[in-house]
Task: structure prediction
Amino acid sequence: MEETAFFSIKTTLFYVLMKLSRKSPFREAPLQPLLLRNLQLRCGDWSIRSLRVNRHLQPFDRVAPHTHRHGQLLLYLRGRGEQEVGDKKWSVGAGAVFFIPDGKKHAFRETGPRRAICLVVDLSGEGPRRWGFRKGFLPAERMAEVRQRVAGMGAERSQGLELSAGSAALLVLDLCRRACEKGGESIVSKSSVVRRLERVWKIDEQGRWPGPKELALRVGLQKDYLNRLVRRSCGLTLGQWRARELLRHVELDLQKGVRISLVADRAGFQDQNYFSRWFRKQTGLAPSKWRK
Result:
């Protein structure tokens, strides 16, 4: 998803005016607002005050502990880090969801090489108060839907049409609430088929990671049937699940300083240029630039 797709005329004007103001909360802040929509949308006893997309800025890698007089929904679209809420901490990756009650101290520390991007929905009303603190995870299929809707909001130039922003906010709220309902997180991340895949995810005798066909053989299921089970359990195809796991090991090798040609060979790519294109598609950066 291109970050420039988030920008709108209204957002840019807001950001410029705030930077000129002495009272600007972004003057020395570690965040840049890529999109801001004031909605004041009410649905039952839930009120959505605003929706925005924040990107962390260099050289900042931490948002200091703070509180709000309203509740917040945080959905991380990109990046890795550690979310602190009260005296507890959780690992964060793309798809991580947190509902933060009003008055609850929270902070974020970035640990990945890419700047984190977080979708923030400000909430008020009895619904969020009763809901309290929740955490969950959105699978890849749902994340793609959210990214598409948010990008569409950023591309919208019309001054009179706010229905798209309102519908996008309601969609995000509904998906994230479902992800945080009791048992939702375990269903997504701890299904039996995923646990079986994790057990057989090992390099072969040649030092390479297994492909989709080999994974199906190791699990003992037909590839098409395994693909359907994986998609049903975590929203990813078998190939996407493998690409996610493969990327983790590739990033570890790059961090250790392993030669890119050797990293590509271990990942099963005979052509280093093809490996570079694959890696850029996954991360947005070439392997050499990512390592820097």
The chain has a mean pLDDT of 79. The chain has two domains: 3-185, 191-291. The radius of gyration is 21 Å.
